[in-house]
Specification:
Blueprint: E1 7-13, E2 17-24, E3 32-39, H1 42-54, E4 59-63, H2 69-76, E5 81-85, H3 99-111, H4 123-155, H5 170-180, H6 187-193, H7 202-209, H8 215-246, H9 250-256, H10 264-274, H11 284-291, E6 299-300, E7 303-304, H12 314-328, H13 334-346, H14 348-369, H15 388-397
Helix pairs in contact: 1-2, 4-8, 4-10, 5-8, 10-12, 11-14, 12-14, 13-14
């Protein structure tokens, strides 16, 4: 393999140790190597940093093994050109699996420029990513607690959900607190606790509250409501931190929310996953492939096999699919037209992925060129005057033969 780096290092990272292999020497000759093992404590990683500086390394590569690469990256970031490699793409030859051999193999690939770097955003974007992913988890936990409350009420034959659309609103929570405290409510007390149009449903609410609520049900309801309140307080803190981290990127947020189907929360997740600098990606096809939204390409002996999409970035893929579904419900938009055109031929699931793919490529161009989304309408494919060839193909597709004659000749 042709060498392009004179001094580089490969790191085989584990939970307790990191094996470092330094390759150095003239590009035309076989390189010399130095191998040493360090602890992954802060003291050990600082020693690794000093050792790499002593050998005057310029480039360092490591595998993206779980989260174990992060402490090493945090210590070495800024002092060297770091490359995070996809472990699947730099797998060593079977039968040669040792820590030293892995470190040497990574260094050898790096010296020859054969490692494609994974995308690692800057620190503020990484912090934003942690918060948006945690917010998604908290929302899932809140939904789970609400479902548990619904089950307890049904088990106790309390039919509040029949008359209150959201029992976790102001009126619903007031009634739930009364149930937990074991209060027996009359019509006047119920009327004081509920708001707006629910005051007209007091007789129905009294009947709905007449269930078989025992001590166990009240205890379980109390625990679920307390946990739900805690989760909601945590969500408020997370939202506040996200707003603080988004302040430098307000212009990008304003660009993203011009796209149909994308609102503030979705825009924050997209920025957290792909960052604000599109030069990190080779182009919009590469970004779509990294996100796991490009169709697979698996062909052998002239036969096409599976075209399933790759795993990619799960958080980004999820929010883009949600945006695609929301965009399909927007009226008179290009994205809705694209969605239904694909759905007619390939089905709803593939239409959702294809629309998410299109939205991501639009986002790439918008953030790279700093331009807002421009709506071209539902009939964007035929908005300009179609050519004669267009109509001929349309008619022939219906099974007719077309003969074209000039009007002047007739």
């Amino acid at each position: 393999m042709e060498a392009i780096l004179e001094r580089c290092a490969g790191l085989d990272v584990h939970q307790e140790t990191v094996v470092a292999c330094v390759l150095y020497g003239e590009l035309e000759r076989k390189p010399k190597q130095e191998i040493r093992t360090f602890s992954t404590t802060t003291k050990g990683l600082l020693a690794l940093n000093d050792w790499l500086n002593e050998w005057e390394c310029t480039h360092i590569a490591m595998e993206s093994t779980g989260v174990y690469w992060k402490p090493v990256w945090n210590i070495l970031e800024g002092a060297f050109t770091l490359i995070l490699a996809n472990a699947r793409r730099i797998k060593n030859v079977p039968g040669r699996k040792t820590d030293v051999a892995d470190a040497f193999w990574i260094a050898q690939l790096l010296r020859s420029g054969l490692i494609s770097p994974s995308f690692v955003p800057p620190v503020d974007i990484r912090n934003l990513r942690d918060l948006t992913r945690y917010r998604r988890k908290l929302l899932g936990h809140a939904t789970a607690e609400k479902n548990r409350v619904h089950k307890i009420l049904q088990d106790a034959n309390v039919k509040l959900t029949t008359y209150i659309s959201d029992i976790f609103g102001v009126s619903g929570r007031a009634l739930l607190e009364s149930i937990i405290n074991g209060e027996v409510l009359d019509a006047d007390e119920v009327r004081e606790k509920v708001k707006t149009s629910l005051k007209r449903k007091v007789p129905e609410l009294l009947e709905a509250l007449d269930g078989r609520m025992n001590k166990h049900h009240r205890m379980m309801l109390g625990m679920h409501i307390d946990h739900l309140s805690y989760i909601e307080r945590q969500l408020e803190k997370v939202e506040s931190e996200i707003d603080q981290l988004l302040k430098p990127y307000l212009s990008s947020m304003e660009l993203l929310i011009t796209i149909p189907g994308i609102q503030k929360d979705a825009a924050a997740v997209i920025l957290a996953e792909i960052g604000n600098d599109m030069t990190c990606f080779g182009g919009d096809p590469q970004l779509a492939a990294w996100a796991g939204l490009s169709p697979g390409n698996n062909e052998s002996a002239g036969k096409k096999k599976s075209s399933r999409i790759a795993k990619g970035n799960k958080s980004l893929k999820a929010v883009l699919c949600q945006a695609a579904w929301a965009a399909s419900k927007s009226k008179g938009t290009r994205l809705a037209s694209f969605f239904y055109r694909i759905q007619k031929r390939r089905g709803q699931r593939k239409a959702t992925i294809a629309t998410a793919h299109l939205i991501l490529r639009i986002i790439y161009r918008m953030l790279k060129d700093r331009v807002a989304y421009r709506e071209i309408g539902w009939d964007y494919l035929t908005s300009s005057t179609p050519s004669v060839e267009y109509w001929i193909k349309k008619i022939e597709a219906q099974g007719f033969n077309v003969k074209v004659e000039s009007a002047e000749a007739s």
